[in-house]
Design a protein that fits this description.
The structure holds two protein chains of two kinds. Chain A is an alpha/beta fold. Chain A contains twelve helices and eight strands. Chain A folds into two domains: 270 residues, 3-Layer(aba) Sandwich (Rossmann fold); 52 residues, no CATH class. In chain A, α6 packs parallel to α9. In chain B, β11 and β12 form a beta hairpin. The longest helix of chain B is centred in the last third of the chain and has 22 residues. Classes of the chains: A alpha/beta, B alpha+beta. Chains A and B meet through α5 and α6 of A and α9 of B.
């Protein structure tokens, strides 16, 4: 994974869809806490980079105070440490693969493998470790990029690839996925199944197969799906996640109000919850908010907005941040 | 109702079930029986052999002796491991498979090893076994036995050995099958057996039995594990599932390593079933990267222990694992997870740029000290951890720079020392600056 860390590439704090996803996950955790899951005692492990947004949310809104941020980009170390928002966040400059086996077996965990690349061997291997190690009641989230693999990704599969002579297409993307995850793919897939729009499906299948494969050996627990988000700020992304649990955790999920939410997915067969953030002005949002939650067929009277956008907005308005410039 | 015949044919047993095992492994099967006799007789627990008991030495007072001789006329295994009772000889030992009520050993899971070894190796068998109080003798020829419909073998009762020390079993196989005699004539078979035995029984040899092959002592080939206090912490895991106790350890091995020794060692009731595995059986090339020489310091031990050997994940040849075994599948996941940080660590010995960290890591790899499976397993469950040494405060640092020759000459002229070397000029000017410009 020798590409530029996304900390350098992405301004994390102004990605509205990502933020909606985070707020929805927090919302779900609050609902689980309400039925007695001791979420505040969980340890959160994630990739805080230099922004620590998920860490701030979990600490402030849910009271988690065992927090661990992993960063493998050693050149960022001083910035990561400088930007650490709370003293209760522990920072380790190691890849996830080195730290997952060290996660305490006695504690419950929320582990968010929030990758910024297309699925690759290392991700699946981390999922394998996590599902082997995480205690019942723990929550595992995995985010991957579902855009087509780029030239630099593909060069790992075929070092002789020359981007000046050839343009990557479904044929190459198929090879890429087969190289990284062949045993997780269905048999009999053709090049067409790796067209750009299909990659989210393939990624979903791979993650889903990974979740199942590695939990089976544990017998007493299974992977209980909770989240399946698709969203796009710049790149199309996929986040899948759920709880490692047995009967009692299953009961807890059923008892909680999480199933009343629009984003909850208790199986990976249904399509993902797509986070669409309509482009709206502040004035429009204030107007819309007054009517929220609205009826299915409601549309604003004072300006034109497609009813589809209204419905998308209805799904996310509670979770959508408002951005404004602060002059510091 | 009509019935189709579904009976077992003797010839099938003789032909089929000797195919999938090597000559060497057959001899090891006979050695297993001897070791098992000893374990049963002296009630030695596998845990005690592998993990020791509360720090007391493992060695039992009076180890059994096993002598193997192997030439192109006969293969013979003689032991003083306690012998077989008449009762077991009559009802168990010569049967294929164990009966439900049979006394369970530790290394015999399937009840086929001895018979398969006999049939594989030769035509004529002579078995004498004596406990201290009773004995029996069995002699038969395979070709004659195969011709009879009767599955029984003739047995004669003989006197006991008179003492526990002399009690034991001898198995002599003569009229070796042509291909077996040929392989032995070809050479190397006794050496192979010696080599295999030394790597298969490291936890038994010298602990509860002493083994000789053709009058040569077999020394245990120990699986070497390493740690470095405060710097390299081995990973360890354990769990119990369906009556099988699993203990896993993975770390960096001490000393200079050959790639052949690297990988996972899998023990079933203390017997090494898989040695230095680097295949996808133990996660390599699948959950882990493919093995490369830079991982040659990697070593892991997976111990499966059970009072019911059938529950262990070994195959009948005891040279492979049953990949469908639930307990093995679970262990395999953990094995892969605990190996990854070690591979990352070993990988970081070879960064694209030379770094200080790299030197520290190489020092750590080179500096690990030998530890034991027992000591690792006694610690709380933990993952592999490398803690880089605290950076030492440097007392001196290099100053190194290029200077114009003309400038150096100016200094030489000024000092009237035409032969002054550039190093001395550097030192002199630096000292001069310190003296004239810097306060104490």
């Amino acid at each position: 994974m020798n590409h530029v860390s996304s900390s350098y590439r992405v301004q994390y704090d102004v990605r509205p869809a990502k933020q909606v996803e985070r707020r929805m996950i927090v919302d779900a955790l609050q609902r689980l806490a309400a039925v007695g899951l001791p979420i505040a005692d969980y340890q959160y492990t994630g990739f805080g980079a230099i922004y620590f947004i998920d860490f701030i949310l979990l600490h402030k809104l849910l009271g988690l105070n065992k927090l661990l941020s992993l960063e493998q980009e050693t050149s960022l170390e001083s910035r990561v440490r400088f930007n650490r928002p709370f003293s209760c966040i522990d920072i380790r400059m190691v890849p996830a693969s080195s730290e997952i086996p060290n996660l305490s077996r006695d504690a419950r965990h929320i582990l968010w493998l929030d990758y910024d690349g297309v699925i690759q061997k290392g991700f699946i291997s981390d999922i394998q470790s996590a599902l082997t190690i995480l205690s019942p009641g723990s929550i595992l989230l995995v985010t991957v990029d579902v855009e087509p693999p780029e030239d630099r990704d593909y060069r790992e599969v075929d070092p002789s690839f020359d981007s000046s002579k050839e343009v990557l297409g479904p044929k190459h993307w198929k090879r890429y996925f087969e190289y990284h995850a062949s045993s997780y793919l269905k048999l009999g897939l053709s090049d067409d199944d790796f067209g750009k729009s299909q990659l989210i499906l393939r990624s979903t299948e791979i993650l889903r197969a990974g979740f199942t494969r590695w939990i089976v050996a544990r017998g007493e627990v299974e992977f209980l799906p909770m989240f399946n988000f698709a969203y796009k700020d710049s790149h199309a992304m996929l986040t899948m996640g759920g709880m490692i649990g047995g009967r009692s955790e299953k009961r807890l999920l059923t008892a909680s109000s999480i199933s009343d939410t629009v984003y909850y997915r208790n199986d990976f067969d249904s399509p993902p919850f797509e986070i669409h953030v309509p482009r709206l002005t502040r004035k429009e949002r204030i107007y819309l908010d007054r009517e929220m939650p609205c009826e299915d067929d409601w549309t604003p009277g004072d300006f034109t907005l497609a009813s589809e956008d209204v419905l998308h907005y209805r799904d996310i308005y509670r979770f959508l941040p408002a951005f404004a410039e602060i002059l510091l | 109702m009509k019935y189709a015949s579904a009976e077992v044919r003797k010839q099938f047993f003789i032909d089929m079930f000797t195919r999938d095992i090597s000559l060497e492994d057959c001899v090891l099967d006979l050695i297993d029986n001897s070791v098992d006799s000893y374990l049963l007789k002296h009630d030695v627990s596998i845990s005690r052999l592998v993990f020791g008991s509360n720090g007391s030495p493992n060695v039992v007072a009076d180890p059994g002796r096993i002598e193997v001789t192997c030439n192109d006329r006969q293969i013979r295994v003689v032991d003083t491991c306690g012998g077989i009772s008449r009762e077991r000889a009559l009802h168990e030992v010569f049967c294929f498979g164990h009966s439900e009520g049979d006394e369970l050993g530790k290394l015999g899971a399937y009840g086929v090893g001895m018979k398969r070894a006999l049939f594989k190796i030769g035509n004529s068998f002579h078995i004498v076994s004596r406990t201290s109080s009773e004995g029996f003798e069995v002699s038969f020829k395979l070709d004659e036995w195969a011709d009879r419909a009767d599955w029984r073998v003739p047995i004669v009762f003989v006197e006991g050995a008179g003492s526990e020390k002399r009690a034991g079993t001898s198995i002599t196989i003569t009229e070796l099958h042509e291909e077996v005699a040929l392989r032995i004539k070809e050479g190397g078979v006794p050496n192979n057996i010696l080599e295999d035995a030394s790597s298969t029984y490291p936890y038994f040899l010298g602990e509860c039995v002493n083994l000789r092959i053709d009058h040569t002592d077999v020394n245990p080939q120990l699986i070497r594990l390493g740690e470095l206090n405060g710097v390299v912490r081995p990973a360890n895991e354990r769990f119990e599932q369906n009556g099988v106790r699993v203990t896993l350890a993975a770390t960096v091995a001490p000393g200079q390593r050959k790639s052949e020794d690297a990988g996972w060692y899998v023990l079933c009731n203390g017997r090494v079933v898989v040695r230095a595995d680097k295949t996808n059986l133990t996660g390599w090339s699948r959950e882990l990267a493919s093995f490369q020489p830079k991982y040659r310091s990697f070593v892991g031990i997976a111990s499966f222990e059970s009072d019911e050997p059938l529950k262990l994940p070994w195959t009948t040849t005891k040279r492979d694992l049953n990949r469908e075994s639930g307990v093995f599948i679970k262990a395999r996941g953990l094995m892969a997870a605990m190996s990854k940080p070690i591979l990352t660590f070993l990988n970081s010995q070879y960064p694209s740029d030379t770094t200080v960290e790299m030197a520290d890591i190489r020092d750590a790899v080179g500096g690990v000290k030998e530890t034991s499976f027992k000591d690792i397993a006694a610690k709380p469950i933990a993952g592999f951890l490398y803690t880089p040494p605290k950076k030492k405060e440097k007392k001196t640092e290099w100053i190194r720079y290029q200077a114009d020759v003309s400038s150096l000459d100016r200094v030489r002229r000024h000092l009237r020392r035409p032969s002054m070397g550039p190093g001395d000029i550097g030192r002199f000017t630096f000292d001069h600056y310190l003296k004239t410009e810097c306060s104490e």
